[in-house]
Design goal:
Layout: E1 10-11, H1 17-28, H2 34-46, E2 53-59, E3 62-71, E4 78-86, H3 92-109, E5 114-120, H4 126-134, E6 138-148, E7 151-159
Helix pairs in contact: 1-2
Length: about 160
Amino acid sequence: MSGYFALDPRPLLPEDHQGTRVLLMGALGVTPYIDRALEVLQRAERGNDVEHRALVIARDGTVAGIALFGLLAGTDGGARLHTAALAPGVESDDVGERLLRAVAGEVRASGARYLLAEMPDDPAIGTILTLLHDHGFEEEARVPDFYRDGVALSFLRLPL
């Protein structure tokens, strides 16, 4: 299915509105994490916000991948990956790689030296965590039982 999406990642367009929400709901479902992802998406859709940006890979109204990211306020050279998600059946080695490489390039061009992802270590978002680990993010710290008993906050870092 990835060959169909052999496109470069691009910024959000108005026609991505429904597709991005379908993808995020599929990736995050009915979890405590969907509300924040949708909030970041809405801010990215407004544009002109260096802390809330988005790149997508989409074709014919279907969004195959999305990354929500931005510069990390109060840091010297930090950027944050809020979340990234791929549609079912889309290959991480292809679409995921292009998407995360494009995010890294965008934030590097803005002066970032690293990309930080603060993620719940929760099986409910296992595909997102796998995507990040597969593409170079490494756990740098964790806070046990942060979200609830047994669900830690994991700080994943990708040097740029």
